[in-house]
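QA checklist item 7 of 12: single-chain prediction sanity check.
[x] sequence parsed
[x] length recorded as 326
[x] structure emitted
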Amino acid sequence: MSNKLNIVQAVNQALMNEMENDKTVIVYGEDVGLEGGVFRATVGLQEKFGKERAFDTPLAESAIVGTGVGMAINGLKPVVEMQFMGFSYPAFNQIISHVSRMRNRTRGGITLPMVIRAPYGGGIRALEHHSESTEAIYAHIPGLKVVIPSTPYDAKGLLIAAIRDPDPVLFLEPKRIYRAFKQDIPEEAYVLPIGKAKIVEEGKDVTIITWGAMVRDVQKASEMVKSKGIIPEIIDLRTISPMDRDTIIESVKKTGRAIVVHEAPKSFGVGAEIVSIINEKAFLYLEAPPTRVTGFDTIFPLPRGEKHYIPSPERIAKTIEDVVKF
């Protein structure tokens, strides 16, 4: 059996499946219980599983993550929600000092099976701290996996994999495309491997590496340049850390060119890491310098400016043409 779901509905079904399958799965956060979450990703969980397994918390992100550490150590599988990625910073000390280090601190004696969910990125005309895209900060923390789906099918399979993972996972949901489109999703639980990228479109002229909401914009740019005889290969990274280096390198060796597209600021970001990997592992195959199409090194703008900040299909298409003509 399958049904057509958007990303936020797929997240909800993944949580439903895992709470049905495993009584140790606990879901909580601000407005998660009675209201079903600010984006309704947890709607119906409290009604079905009760207040002991799906409940609201005070506005205290550090406490939300900190209690998750204690629950995970003692045999539960907490899935906590940060209402927005920009609200996760009060919990940063818990994440970097405890969540990510427990396996190493106990020399493998204790693992921490917990998931931190957070809507991330811009594009919904939100207020300050509601449009953050700082996945690079968290990907830099050893011991923490960072996952970003771009489709409903991937959102469900990757979230279930995250919940079943014995180690902590930061699960970032691109809220700009929460309800952008639907896919046929199996009703039963299924798992997609964390750490494995997906080739969205096969091509021959240039490799484009991207993730999250930007995948759709890259696909639009790809359609623009195909009319000019350029066939890009598009890779959806799906997991920022650990990164699927092999898929990137094999693709670049085939096409000879690479562009990284992300919404986050340009400097010190994931794009810089990918370009470095390409230079180290595929330098002799390159026909043009690897480059980036990104947001800007500034605070994410308020609503009237966000369309100028997020890479547009037109900006991406122009870069594709420049790289191919180099």
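[x] summary fact logged: The chain has a mean pLDDT of 97.
[ ] second reviewer sign-off
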